Amino acid sequence: MIWLLAEGFKHEAIPKLEVYDPALGHAPLYLDDAQVLAVVSDAPLATALPAFTRNDAAGLVRFILALLEQHQDAHR
Fold first, then answer.
1. What backbone torsions phi and psi does residue 30 show, to the nearest 5 degrees?
2. Which residues of the chain have pLDDT under 70?
């Protein structure tokens, strides 16, 4: 399995992490995109998805590692 972290593919049908900044004036993707697995934002969000602040790099890494582990377990 190969994982790639890339920016700029927000409209592709691939699993993604959304970095949301309401100051940009755009609606968040997670509202309509089932491929969004988690959201990173400093704004309060009304979502059941895992949410991280921009300063919570450790929490985001733990989340990504848990996803990798789930994927590996499912393919053993």
1. -60, -20
2. 1-2
